[in-house]
Amino acid sequence: MNSRERVLSAFERRGYDRLPVKHEGTPEINRMLMEHFGLVNQEQLLLMLGDDFRYVEPPYIGPELRTFPDGSVEGYWGEHYRYAEFAGGRYLESCHQPFAGVERLEDLDRSHFPSADWFDYSTVRAQCAALRQRGFAVCFGTAGDMDFINSIARARGTEQVLIDLVTDDPVYLEIMEARFRFYFEMHRRVLEAAGGLVDFTHIGEDLGTQTAQVISHEVFEKHFAPKFGAYFAMVHAHGARTMMHMCGCSAAFLPRLIELGLDVYDVVQPTTPQTDIAVLQQKFGDRLTFCGSVCVQTTLAFGTPAQAAAEVRRRQHLFPKGGLFLGPTHAIQVGSPLENILALYRTAGSLRETVDEAVRAAGGAAAETKVNMSKLF
Questions:
Q1: Cβ-count burial of 373 within 10 angstroms (0-12 exposed, 13-18 middle, 19+ buried)?
Q2: d(CA 241, CA 233)
Q3: Bridge-partner residues for 119, per DSSP?
Q4: Exposed, middle or buried, 271 (CB in 10 Å: 0-12/13-18/19+)?
Q5: Which helix (H) or strand (E) holds 355?
Q6: Which of 211, 331, 351, 373 has the most CB within a 10 Å radius?
């Protein structure tokens, strides 16, 4: 099986030669892995780990996203990001929020709202065709697309957004509607340009904390369900499948999301009894495919190679015909032992133990994968 055949067969529960794999690591983790194998770019790394998915991306042609004297960079919505340093790594964090403190619609600066016209869709079909030719499952989007709580909070403030959702604040609802229209139209244009060659679209919404849901079902039904339903229907009309990133304990929303048209629950954070992968498989495995599920907070960070391998074997047993794309529960974090990561992919059967000619060729032919800032914006 090539990667696309493996992914679609697992999605359709028709069996597979091995579990499909979807890797995600922080830049520091990816550099550690590349140094271990002697690799020069991200594409080589994905080949070594056996990642079965590749993403297309329409080039950004919009207004220049500025870099400011303090080193911060501008997001699509006028927010600024600066790296927060910690032991061994760094993350981009919001440091300027243009919608913070805005209480009246007449004071809302809509010039900060981006447009789907800021992207060039003319190369999308060729990108898709090239990835199909190489045998990969083709995806578009990121965990930061849609993302009405987390990403709007980066431009307005987390506490304010959670208050807004309860009070139906008109300023927040205007921003939310603009965000929905922007990503809906961008995804629609990509799918239209691709002409049926995109297999999965990817959006995100962090609906859970470590132990429970973030918002009530009533708030979800009022503000989120209509938008997700319209988006999922549009994606299906173009022949693609829907994937949604959800950090935290989001199980309470799965029945409704399935009704609305969700196909793949991405990352699956198994840190509570109700989000254990066996429980999820029993409750929803006939209607939903899972992606991720090997914990970056426990097993990969603080476990042993044997424990990482045992987690993979457990999933192989639970999903003998498909229904799971194997990977970490988020980007594998700094400090995670190399041996644990290798054990994950080695036990899955996806790891190449030596750098072969196909991997070496990707060192010259494949461009270095860029940081996709839309994961934040």
A1: middle
A2: 10
A3: 60
A4: middle
A5: none
A6: 331
Question: CA dihedral defined by 343, 349, 352, 354, rounded to 10 degrees?
Answer: 70
Query: Who's near 261: CB < 8 A, 6+ residues apart?
Result: 228, 229, 232, 233, 235, 236, 242
Separation CA 373–CA 151 (nearest Å): 12
Coil/strand/helix, residue 187: helix
Residues 6+ apart with CB under 8 A from 258: 284, 287, 288
Cα dihedral across residues 304, 310, 311, 316: positive or negative: positive
Which two three-digit tokens encode residue 16? 């597979």
DSSP reduced 3-state for 331: coil
- Characterize the bridge pairing of strands 89-96 and 80-86: antiparallel
In tens, the pLDDT along 181-240 reads 999 999 999 999 999 999 999 999 999 999 999 999 999 999 999 999 999 999 999 999
Q: Could you give the CA distance from residue 114 to residue 15 in angstroms, rounded to a whole number?
A: 42
- Whose CA is closest to 98, among 75, 115, 117? 75
Q: Which two tokens stand for residue 256?
A: 């409704």
CA distance 179 to 148: 7
**Token pair for residue 285?**
């495995």
What residues does 293 pair with on adjacent strands?
327
CB atoms within 10 A of CB 7: 27
**Whole-model pTM over 0.85:** yes
Of 219, 63, 240, give the one whose Cα is nearest residue 148.
Answer: 219
CATH number of the domain at 3-63+108-375, out of 2.50.20.20, 3.40.50.920, 3.20.20.210, 2.60.40.10? 3.20.20.210
Helix (H) or strand (E) holding 92: strand 89-96
Among 134-138, 364-368, 372-376, the range of highest mean pLDDT: 134-138
Q: Please, what's the largest Cα pairwise distance for the chain?
A: 61
Burial class (CB in 10 A: 0-12, 13-18, 19+), 230: middle
Nearest to 137 by CA among 263, 284, 307, 298: 263
